[in-house]
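Tutorial, part two.
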Amino acid sequence: MANAVITTFGQHISAGSTAISDNSATALDIETTAGEDLITVDTTTSQESIHFLPMYDSSSTAGRGVKIPNGSASYPGIYFPTAQRPGFACGGEGSNVHFVYNGNNIIRFNQGQISAGSIGNSWNLAIEATSSTNPVYCYGHSNMDTGIGFSSGPKVHLIVDGANRFECDQNGNIGLGGPSYGTSAAGVFAIANGTAPASSPANAVQLYAEDVTSSSELKVRDEAGNITTLSPHHFTMIERSEPMAWSYYSCNPFVGKEINIDMMRVVRKVEELSGEKFIVSSPLPPDQCLDWDTEEQRKYDDTQAAIVDYAAMDEDNQEVNVEPIPYTKKPKPSWLA
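Running the prediction step on this input gives:
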C-alpha cells in the first residue's frame, strides 16, 4: 500500500494534506467530537486495511456499524462502477436487501430467505415465471439448452439439449419424453413415443413406447434381446378374433423369430372344450364410454392450442421450449366399426 493522503476538509485537520506513511508506527483514527473512533486507517503492518468502527453507542436503536444509503435498483447503495452498476440496495426499514444488476432486482434476501424475482411466498429459494408462456430456467451446465424449467400448469421440466425429457405436474402425473395425459388424469406415469433401442445394455431392461400401426404400444427389451409388447392389443401377425381380444407378442433378433398369440381366442377354445366360463364381460355406464372421433378431435384441438402458445413466445423462450408437433387424427380402427 502506498502512502495514504487525507485532503483537508472540515475543521479538525490542519491546513494542507496529511500523509500517512506506509508501515508507519501508528494508525490514523478519525473520531467524533466525543472521542469515539469512527474510521481507522491502519498501515502499521503489511496487512493494510481500513476499519469502520461503531457509529452509534450501544443504547441507540439505530444499531451499530457502517451506514450506507439504501439506494435503488438503478443506483444501489453499494455498487461497482461498471455500466451495469451491479451491487446491493435496500428497500428501506423492514424491507429486503436486493442484489441488483443493470437496473433490475436479481436476487432478494429477506430474513433467511433467498428468492430470485419478485414473489410474496415465504420460500427458502423461489423462482417465479414472469408469465404462463415464459418459464424460468435454471441451467445446470455450460450447455444453455440443459436445465430445469418451470411452466404453467404448474409443471416442472427437465430439459436436455432443448427438449422436454422429464416432467411432473400438479396432479402428480409424471411423464417421459414430453407426453400428454388423459382427461382428469392424476398420479399417472406416461411415456411418449420415441425411438426403440437397437441394443441391450448389460444388467438392465429398457421400457419404452413405440407407435405400431397408429397405436402407441408399451414395450420392454431385456438384456437377452427379447422385445415384448406389454400392452395387450398387438395384432400384426394374426387377425383380432373380437373387439376385446388381447394378445401376446414378442420377438428376438438373436433367435431371428417373432411370435403373436390371440389370448382371447385361446381362452374361448378352452371354454368350448371344458364347458366352463372363464371370460366375464359387462357394459360400462354411459358416462364412462368414449367416442373415437370425439377423442381424436380433442387431441387435435389440444395440440393446436399448444402450437398457438408456442408461436406467441419470444425467440428466447422458443429456444428453451419444445415446439409442439401437429397432431394427425387417426381413423377409427376396423375392429371398432
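DSSP finds three helices and 22 strands in the chain. In part three we will examine how such features are distributed along the chain.
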